Every structure is written in structure tokens, then in C-alpha cells.
């Protein structure tokens, strides 16, 4: 049996306490519908940090311990199960958070498989990408088109599809003004997708480096709202749409204030609307990861160079350090591990 190096979460701990331990594990064997992937890039997501620190234990995440985190992955197919005809050894393959869905429920049957109650989530209900190898269900893995960098572009598979679906949910168009709150791993991609729709894009971020990144990837304007978001009052009723990825209630409240009557708020983070002015007929909608259709559209756009991942690269054994940097807001764009 071959061995692999993996960063394993054995017990919930704070990022400061080096929660992940590098272990030598048996490389798993793919069953009939699975593929084994030798990972070339694996993104580090803020939701990995939430899971590892125990913020989501009450929601059943992680579903088990020990677990290998990581849910945005690119790699080379190493082995295929006997029923797999979509992949061959050596192909480039990608895996997103939606590891598999049931294919039979009302959501799967209506093209909303990201809401499937029986879904498996990569790195949360089963082992993910902080590892040299991982298993994927071939029916929910993706072929990678030319033009995508296998050592950098794993983030297309979580922030990429998350940003894309949120922008779709915002129903943008050439005459629309959209404010995007939060310019991290997801936000910097949402800005690019929103620009492709023709909308005018204003990025809102409390961090100077993040505002620079927003301008670099094509935002028309940036706003520093101040730590408490009080600076946003100047932009009251300025936007047709607002999309929130900044993980704070203050950001959500500020986003609501920027909306014109009839506007639409898209939430890509946990939180609520503390007060909704019903007379303005504001719509609020959540957006969570994306379907296989969304994912394939993201890959198509990325392969033609229309969106670009800004990534910092790290070794697999630096995963603890990366989580800490992410917690402290010190990552520009996205961090990827290169096993
Ligand atoms: Zn993620
Ligand atoms: Zn289903």
C-alpha cells in the first residue's frame, strides 16, 4: 500500500494552537465510481478555518474526526474506478465543496443540487484536499480545460464558483450599480465576474491592501467604510445591488443601507438583516457554492483568461501558518497549498 502525507485535524483547536498534524496515511483506493487524484493545488478557505476552530460544530461540521480539511482542489488523476469512463489516468481533474449529491431529491432534479440535503461536502463530511492524494466521485469531479494553472487555480473550485453564483443571484446587467463588500478570496473574483456582466462595480473593504487588489482586478471604485462601517452613510441608496462576503454583521447592515428601493441584497456569509425597510421592497437572497453547471461555466471563463486568481503559494506543511495568516487578514487574494 502506498503512503501519502496529509494535514489531519484530530481535534477542534484554535488556529494559534497548530490544529493540524502532518501524518503518513495509506493512500485510499477508488471504488467503482471514484477517482484517486494526486493533488497539485489546494486552496485554504475561511470556512476551513471556521470548521477547524469549532465555529460550526453545532451545525454538525465537521461531520467526523479525524478529518482532512480542504475543499477546492486540482490534481492529476492517478487511478480510476471500474465504472469511470469520463476520466483517464493523467487527466487534470478538479473537486469543489459539493463532493456528491443524491441525484434524486427535488433540488437535484431541479438544477439546485447545491441545496441537496443528502450531499457530501469535501473536507467536512469526508476527507479533502490538505493532502498529497484524495478521492473524488467521478460524476462530481471536473475536467480542467487548457489555460488553467494546475499549481495555482484550485480556488476556482470554491471562491470561484461561490463568487460566480452570487453574481448570478444578483441579476446584474450593463446599467446596474453593484457594491461588493469584502475583497478576499471570494470578493476579488466576484468583482471580475460582475465586470463581465457590464455592471459598474464598487468594492467596499476596510483593508488598504484589499482595496488595492480590488482596483487591480477591475473595480471601478473602492470605498473605505472605516472599521465600524460608519463611513458608508455617504453612499446611502447608491446601489441597485449589494453582495456581501465580508464576515461581519456590520457589513450586512451597511450593505442594506446602500441599496436603492427595489434593490437586491445577496448574502454569501452567515448573518441576518437586523431591520428591513419593507416600504423599499428590498429582496434578500442567500447564495451557497454552486452547481456543476455553474462550475463548468466558471472553468470556461477562466480558461479564456477572463478571470484571474490572485494566489499566494505555500507548502502543504505550512497549512497551520496559512490558517493563522488568514485569521489575521494577512492573505492577499487566496492562499493555496502545493503538496
Ligand atoms: Zn470554501
Ligand atoms: Zn439531492
From TrEMBL:
PROSITE patterns: ADH_ZINC. One of its GO terms (molecular function) is alcohol dehydrogenase (NAD+) activity. Its cofactor is Zn(2+). One of its GO terms (cellular component) is cytoplasm. The keyword Oxidoreductase applies. It comes from the Archaea. InterPro entries: ADH-like_C, ADH-like_N, ADH_Zn_CS, ER, GroES-like_sf, NAD(P)-bd_dom_sf. Residues 15-337 form the Enoyl reductase (ER) domain. Coiled coil: none annotated. One of its GO terms (biological process) is small molecule metabolic process. It holds the Pfam family ADH_N. Keywords: Metal-binding, Oxidoreductase, Zinc. Belongs to the zinc-containing alcohol dehydrogenase family. This is Zinc-dependent alcohol dehydrogenase. It comes from Thermogymnomonas acidicola. The lineage of its organism: Archaea, Methanobacteriati, Thermoplasmatota, Thermoplasmata, Thermoplasmatales.
